[in-house]
Design brief:
It contains 5 helices and 13 strands. It is an alpha+beta fold and about 210 residues long. Strands 1, 2, 3, 4, 5 and 6 form a 6-stranded antiparallel sheet that branches.
């Protein structure tokens, strides 16, 4: 699945950031950027530079729908990991709920030393494999991970966007389709419907619709 920030897979994202990693610095050894640091699940043993410690970041592919399980088991074994999170609104039983989800479903990042024992990774529950080429895991530059951390946005992604097609599930217009225009408070929505060859705006309870 692609990232909603950059519309790329996690590997394409990190490859695409190589040009950013080579950008001119601001004189303090940091890449110039106007973006801010945001929401993530990250566990590190300490704050020292991984480059100085001889460590590198790698991309881990998780088993289907087992991102959290992989994260939990890697943490129990003492691994340093980073699972970017995003907050999204979901329409659940007629109510909007904000949920934290993986930015890259099915993937997370892990930091390993070159002389570390990698064997336990293969049997870690929730982990499928280390992403690499030619049978060798491919390291990801620290600068790219740092840029990813800055680019993740903490603002929840709305469950309903203007223009979304919805179905009315109850009331006088049950089973009819409409177009979502806007929220009308916290529990009502404004819809656009076609009736008798004319467009009509109407407001109804959020619980009376479902998104396609």
């Amino acid at each position: 699945m692609n990232c909603w920030v950059c519309e790329r897979s996690p590997w394409e994202f990190t490859q695409g950031l190589e040009s950013i990693g080579k950008a001119p610095c601001n004189g303090q050894g940091r890449i110039r950027s106007k973006v801010t640091r945001n929401n993530m699940n990250i566990c590190t043993a300490n704050g020292a530079s991984s480059m100085r410690e001889g460590k590198a970041w790698y991309l881990v592919q998780c088993k289907p729908r087992q991102d959290e399980r992989a994260e939990e088991n890697l943490g129990r074994q003492g691994y340093e990991y980073f699972r970017p999170l995003c907050r999204r609104e979901r329409l659940v039983r007629g109510a909007l709920q904000v949920q934290s989800e993986s930015l890259f479903p099915g993937y997370l990042f892990i930091q390993l030393a070159a002389d570390a024992n990698w064997a336990p990774l293969r049997s870690t529950r929730g982990v499928s494999r280390l992403v690499g080429f030619g049978g060798m895991p491919m390291p990801i530059a620290d600068e790219l991970i740092a840029e990813l951390q800055r680019r993740v946005q903490p603002v929840p992604q709305p469950a309903l966007q203007p223009g979304d097609r919805v179905c009315i599930t109850s009331g006088s217009f049950a089973e009819l389709d409409a177009i979502f225009l806007a929220m009308d408070g916290e529990e009502r929505v404004v819809l656009l419907m076609s009736l008798l060859h004319r467009k009509h705006r109407l407001s109804m309870p959020l619980a009376n619709i479902r998104k396609y």
